[in-house]
Write a structure and sequence with these properties.
With 397 residues, the chain is an alpha+beta fold. It has 12 helices and 12 strands. The chain has 2 domains: 2-204 and 388-396, Ribosomal Protein S5, domain 2, CATH 3.30.230.10; 208-385, Alpha-Beta Plaits.
Length: 397
C-alpha cells in the first residue's frame, strides 16, 4: 500500500502541486464480478456477485475552492462546481456527470459539498463487464462521505446513491447489483424485489478452497460501444411486464407470459418474449446456485452456471452482436468450453455485448487454459480474480 500511496501522491502533485501541507484521504474501490443472475437485478430479481481484487484508487484532499477537480489517469482533468449540481443533458455519459450526481445527493441529505482535488487511477478494465463505472461511483461516494459527512452514510445507502447517479445524471439504465457488490465487498446473494431496500446475504465461499479459479477473459471488445443494445434488454423485459399490467418481471410468473404469447408477439415481438423467459430461467438458477454455494457443492454450481450461459446466449441474446461477423464473446465461450471439456464452465459476463466472459476453471488447468485464451485474445487477456472482502473504503493518511 505504501507504493500505491507514493504513486498517487506523485500523480496528485503533478496535477495540483505539493500535497505536503494538505489533508490527504486514500480511497480504494474494487471492481465486481457477477457470479449468477445475468440481467435479473433490474427486474427485481436475485443475483450473486462478488467484489474482486482490481481497484480504483485515489488520493483526495479538501480545498478552499468551490470546485471538485478530479484528475483520472488516462482521462484527463474534470472540474465540477459545487454550486450547480443539477443533471445536464450535455454531460450524459461523462465523468463530470457522475461527480455532479454523487455530490447532488449529498446536498439533498443536508451535507454541504465543498471543493476537493483528487488524483485517481484504476486497474479495473473499462468497458469490460467488471463495472469500472460502479467502482468509480463508489470511489467518489466514499470520498465524499469522508470529506463531507464524516463517514455517516452506510455502504448500502452509498450504493443506491451511485445507482441513481448513473441512471439520472450519467444516463445509463442499470440495476443495483454493480454498485451493491462494490460497496459491500465479499460474495453476496442479493434480492432486489424491493427497490427501496438493499437485501444482501453474505455467502462465505472461496472457489480456490474448492479447487477452482474464477477467470475473467477480456475479449478485445468494449461493451461500452453497445450501450443501446444493453439498454434494450431491460427495456424489452419491462415492456413485457407493462403489457401484463406490472412494472417489472419479478411481479409476474412465467405462466403469465406464456398465456399471452400470441398477443405479446404481435405487440412486442419474439425477442422481448425470449428475454422475459430468460429472466424466469435465470432467477431459478440463481436460487439453485446460492444453495450450492451454501452447501459447498462447487460441482453443482459449475453445472448450473453452464445452464445459465446457455440461457443468456439463446434467450437473452446478449452474447453475440446482431449479425456482425465479429463475435468475440461467443468465440471466447466456444473456445473455453472446448478447453474445459465439461470440467468447468463459461458464460457471458456482466451486461454482455462484448467486454468479457467468465470461466470457472480447475486450479490444475489454469495455466494451460490461460495460455490458450491468451493465444487468441492477446497476452494477459485471461486474468484470475480473487474476492475483495472489504468493499469500497476510505482512510485519512
Amino acid at each position: 500500500m505504501d507504493k500505491v500511496v507514493a504513486s498517487l501522491r506523485e500523480a496528485f502533485e503533478g496535477a495540483f502541486g505539493s500535497a505536503n501541507s494538505r489533508r490527504q484521504l486514500l480511497v480504494v474501490s474494487p471492481g465486481r464480478t457477477e457470479l449468477a443472475g445475468n440481467h435479473t437485478d433490474h427486474e427485481g430479481g436475485n443475483v450473486i456477485a462478488a467484489a474482486v481484487d482490481r481497484y480504483v484508487q485515489g488520493l483526495f484532499s479538501p480545498s478552499e475552492m468551490s470546485v471538485m477537480r478530479v484528475q483520472s489517469e488516462g482521462y484527463g482533468l474534470v472540474e465540477v462546481g459545487t454550486d450547480d449540481l443539477d443533471a445536464r443533458e450535455d454531460e450524459r455519459g461523462t465523468t463530470a456527470a457522475l461527480v455532479r450526481g454523487m455530490a447532488a445527493q449529498f446536498a439533498e441529505r443536508g451535507y454541504e459539498p465543498v471543493g476537493f482535488d483528487a488524483a485517481i487511477r484504476s486497474d479495473v478494465l473499462g468497458g469490460s463487464g467488471l463495472s469500472s463505472s460502479a467502482a468509480f461511483e463508489l470511489e467518489l461516494g466514499q470520498a465524499m462521505n469522508a470529506l463531507w459527512a464524516d463517514g455517516a452514510l452506510p455502504a448500502d445507502e452509498l450504493a443506491m446513491m451511485a445507482q441513481r447517479a448513473e441512471r439520472e445524471w450519467f444516463g445509463k439504465p442499470c440495476g443495483l447489483m454493480d454498485q451493491a457488490a462494490v460497496a459491500l465487498g465479499g460474495v453476496q446473494h442479493m434480492d432486489f424485489s424491493d427497490s427501496t431496500v438493499l437485501k444482501a446475504e453474505p455467502l462465505d465461499f472461496d472457489f480456490a478452497d474448492h479447487g477452482f479459479a474464477v477467470c475473467i477473459i477480456a475479449v478485445g471488445a468494449d461493451h461500452a460501444a453497445n450501450i443501446d443494445d444493453y439498454a434494450a434488454v431491460p427495456g424489452e423485459m419491462q415492456a413485457i411486464a407493462r403489457a401484463l399490467g406490472k412494472e417489472v418481471l419479478s411481479q409476474l410468473a412465467l405462466d403469465d407470459v406464456v398465456a399471452e404469447i400470441p398477443r405479446l408477439r404481435e405487440e412486442l415481438g419474439d425477442r422481448a418474449i425470449l428475454r422475459a423467459m430468460h429472466y424466469f430461467q435465470e432467477e431459478g438458477l440463481v436460487a439453485s446456485r446460492a444453495e450450492a454455494l451454501r452447501a459447498g457443492d462447487v460441482a453443482r454450481f459449475v453445472a448450473l452456471t453452464r445452464s445459465s450461459g446457455i440461457s443468456s446466449a439463446m434467450l437473452l441474446q446478449n452474447v453475440s452482436v446482431g449479425g456482425a461477423s465479429d463475435q468475440p464473446s461467443m468465440l471466447a465461450i466456444a473456445l473455453a468450453e472446448s478447453f474445459l471439456q465439461g470440467r468447468g464452465s463459461a458464460r457471458v459476463h456482466g451486461g454482455g455485448f462484448g467486454g468479457t466472459i467468465q470461466a470457472f476453471v480447475p486450479l490444475d488447468e489454469v495455466e494451460s487454459f490461460s495460455a490458450g485464451m491468451d493465444a487468441v485474445f492477446g497476452e494477459g487477456a485471461c486474468g484470475v480474480y480473487g474476492v475483495d472482502h472489504e468493499g469500497a473504503r476510505a482512510q485519512w493518511l
